[in-house]
Write a structure and sequence with these properties.
By secondary structure, the protein is of the alpha+beta class. The chain contains five helices and five strands. A three-stranded mixed beta sheet has the order 3-4-5. The chain has a two-stranded antiparallel ribbon with strand order 1-2.
Length: 173
């Protein structure tokens, strides 16, 4: 049995909430119309007034704008429904079904960079499959970038295949 990949919520889930709110607003409008038509309330129906306002022989600008907005919203819903959910974790190499969170990869990379010779402080940021390591170097250690790349590469070997970039800045004296 294959276990499913850990994933974020699909993009359509937010759109589903928006669609549910719009349907709820439509239900309130129709309930108000039904109550006004039955005589349960003394006010006129909003729906009847709106349809009377739309009964115009000349096309209105706001109707065109509303139609374009509705078409764009429908296209946005359609695209969101077709997009797959992104993975929330990175697969680790090996035979088992092991997944590593991006924050764990960042912590491992930062720790490995700080253990490289000449590094005072390091911080990492993971975006998709690119890991950026920012390091603060001790004065006079310009050659530490290669050591940082080697240290981070050794620690992340077998965990995840990532593109590693190092930004190093020499600290003040």
């Amino acid at each position: 049995m294959k276990v499913r990949d850990p994933r974020h919520r699909p993009p359509a889930s937010g759109l589903a909430v928006l669609g549910a709110i719009l349907l709820l607003a439509l239900a309130v409008l129709l309930a108000e119309h039904a109550a006004a038509e039955r005589g349960w309330i003394d006010a006129d129906s909003w729906l009847r007034e709106t349809l009377a306002a739309l009964d115009d022989r000349q096309p209105s600008t706001w109707v065109l704008v509303g139609g374009i907005a509705a078409a764009a919203l429908g296209l946005w819903f359609l695209i969101g429904a077709c997009l797959p959910a992104r993975r929330s974790h990175l697969p680790a190499d090996g035979d088992g079904d092991l997944w590593v969170s991006p924050r764990a990869v960042e912590a491992i990379a930062s720790d490995a960079a700080e253990r490289a010779p000449g590094v005072l402080h390091a911080a990492s940021e993971l975006r998709r499959r690119r890991l950026k390591v920012k390091a603060l170097l001790a004065p006079g250690n310009e050659a530490a970038i290669a050591d940082i790349l080697e240290s981070v590469g050794d620690r992340l070997a077998g965990i995840a295949e990532l593109e590693v970039a190092v930004q190093a800045k020499e600290g003040g004296r």
